[in-house]
TrEMBL record:
Region annotated Disordered, chain positions: 189-213
A Pfam family matched in the record: ABC2_membrane_7
Keywords, alphabetical: Membrane, Transport
Composition skew (Polar residues), residue ranges: 202-213
InterPro entries: ABCG_dom, P-loop_NTPase
Residue ranges the record marks as coiled coil: none
Annotated ranges, domain ABC transporter family G: 95-149
Name of the protein in its database record: ABC transporter family G domain-containing protein
Keyword Transcription listed: no
Length: 213
């Protein structure tokens, strides 16, 4: 620590307080002065990639090799980052624990390359119940979603006793979603472009300069 401070003074480096904030959010403050890589291997950690003007992050299976507690801590940090900086994070996880699943705002559920559901996590069970499938109280939502779109597992969640359970393919689930109130609401939201005259923060600017000369 003392040696790092000395070198910073020699080089005229003024520590950026913003870096300390990001390290706190990412849980890296305890290893802030740990060197990674060497002269031959330029290693960049995930935390370094996140710091900066990044507005969109796409993450695939970041929980590989991690226990559920560590995965939860990482996702919780990323959730804070998304909410504080207004960033968009798309993350694919394999069978997340219930507490980790509850951290997400929205979910994109896919089967055989088709979008089966896209919307708020709080409405996903309602959609599948409308399709005839109910998640039991002892079942985690993430596990239920993985099994209800599987041909060999979906029958156990069928709750309409007056009718026999028929296999519903990914195409049929996708069609049901598009015809549902959730799918129609999503289409309606996507069909309305953000308006620049109304100063919407996500509107696209088509002029060369954002400010008049």
């Amino acid at each position: 620590m003392i040696e790092v401070s000395r070198r910073e003074k020699q080089l005229g480096i003024v520590p950026n307080p913003g870096a300390d904030i990001y390290m706190k959010i990412l849980g890296l403050d305890i290893c802030a002065y740990t060197l990674i890589g060497d002269a031959m291997r330029r290693v960049i950690s995930g935390g370094k990639l996140i710091v900066g003007p990044t507005k969109s992050l796409f993450m695939d299976e970041i929980s590989n090799g991690l226990d559920s507690s560590t995965t939860y801590q990482i996702v919780a940090c990323l959730q804070q980052l998304a909410h504080i900086t207004d960033a968009t994070i798309v993350m694919a996880l394999l069978q997340p624990a219930p507490e980790t699943f509850d951290l997400f705002d929205d979910i994109i559920l896919m089967a055989e390359g088709k979008i089966v559901y896209h919307g708020s996590c709080s409405h996903v069970l309602e959609f599948f119940e409308d399709c005839g499938f109910r998640c039991s109280e002892r079942k985690g939502v993430a596990d239920f979603l993985q099994e209800v779109i599987s041909k060999k597992d979906l029958a156990q969640y069928w709750h309409q006793t007056k009718q026999s359970c028929n296999y519903i393919s990914a195409d049929m689930f996708s069609k049901k979603f598009k015809e549902s109130s959730f799918g129609k609401k999503l289409d309606e939201e996507l069909s309305k472009p953000f308006s620049k005259p109304h100063s919407h923060k996500n509107a696209i600017s088509f002029s060369k300069y954002s400010l008049s000369k």
